[in-house]
Please model this.
Amino acid sequence: MKEQNKQKTRFAICIVDSEPDLTVRKLYRVLPDPSAAKDKYIRVVDESGEDYLYPSGYFVFIEVSQPAEEALLTVVNNYTK
Model:
């Protein structure tokens, strides 16, 4: 079987309201950052429109189907333009 090169997009929901650039219960796209993950941080594009590192404990990760992923990416890409 061929290994798929496309990395699955990850999404997480913010569960804290103590950060000014995050919104509790909002869905964020998680950007790949293996170095940050080693230290239990994740990289997300926050309310400022820039990507930053946050403790992974600030989020709950969710799995979405392929059609849902495509729909969410369309929304995220339109939001960040």
Observations:
- Strands lie at 10-14, 27-31, 41-45, 51-55, 59-62.
- The domain at 10-79 is CATH 2.30.30 (SH3 type barrels.).
- Residues 66-79 form the longest helix (14 residues).
- The CA atoms of residues 14 and 25 lie 5 Å apart.
